Backbone:
C-alpha cells in the first residue's frame, strides 16, 4: 500500500514474479514509463493516480493485459492519464482483442487516448464498466452478437466516436 508514494524515479520495470501491484503503489510519482509483466493479474486502486508524467506503458502479451483486474478506481490503470500502450516495443493504436478473452474488464483501456480502433472478437461476452471511457481518438466500434452486457460508461467521453454497431444479444 503506497510503496513508492511520491517517488522521484522516472522508469520502473516490474519483475516477472510480481502478480499484484498494490493500491497507491505509484501514487503521485514522477514516472514516465513502466513495464508491466505478464504475471501481473491485479492492480490496486489509485496505483497510478496523479502520475501525470507517465507517457509509456510496456507489455509483452495483450491477453495478459486484458486479464488484469483493476481496483475500484479508474486510476488503477496506468493508461488513465493518457500514456501510450506498447506491445513488444510497438505502439498500439489499432487493437484486436485476442480470441481467448471472454470479458473486457472494467477500466481495461480507460484513458487510452491513442486508441483509434478496437476489434472485438466473438469470444467476448461482456464489456466492463468504463472499459473504453476517455478513449478520445476512438472513431468506431462494432460490438459482436456474442456480447450480452455492456457496463456503465463503457464508452463515455469517447469524443471522436461517430459510429457504433451493437450486436443483437446485448441486454
Residues:
Amino acid at each position: 500500500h503506497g510503496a513508492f508514494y511520491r517517488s522521484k524515479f522516472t522508469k520502473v520495470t516490474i519483475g516477472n514474479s510480481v502478480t499484484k501491484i498494490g493500491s497507491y503503489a505509484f501514487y503521485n510519482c514522477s514516472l514516465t514509463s513502466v513495464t508491466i509483466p505478464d504475471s501481473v493479474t491485479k492492480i490496486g486502486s489509485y496505483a497510478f493516480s496523479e502520475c501525470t508524467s507517465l507517457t509509456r506503458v510496456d507489455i509483452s502479451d495483450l491477453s495478459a493485459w486484458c486479464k488484469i483486474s483493476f481496483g475500484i478506481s479508474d486510476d488503477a490503470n496506468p493508461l488513465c492519464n493518457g500514456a501510450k500502450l506498447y506491445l513488444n516495443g510497438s505502439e498500439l493504436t489499432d487493437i484486436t482483442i485476442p480470441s481467448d478473452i471472454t470479458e473486457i474488464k472494467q477500466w481495461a483501456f480507460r484513458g487510452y487516448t491513442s486508441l483509434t480502433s478496437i476489434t472485438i472478437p466473438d469470444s467476448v461476452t461482456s464489456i466492463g464498466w468504463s472499459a473504453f471511457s476517455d478513449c478520445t481518438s476512438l472513431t468506431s466500434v462494432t460490438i459482436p452478437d456474442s456480447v450480452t452486457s455492456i457496463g456503465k460508461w463503457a464508452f463515455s467521453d469517447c469524443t471522436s466516436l461517430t459510429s457504433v454497431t451493437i450486436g443483437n444479444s446485448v441486454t
Notes: DSSP finds one helix and 15 strands in the chain. The longest strand covers residues 56-59. The CA atoms of residues 8 and 30 lie 5 Å apart.
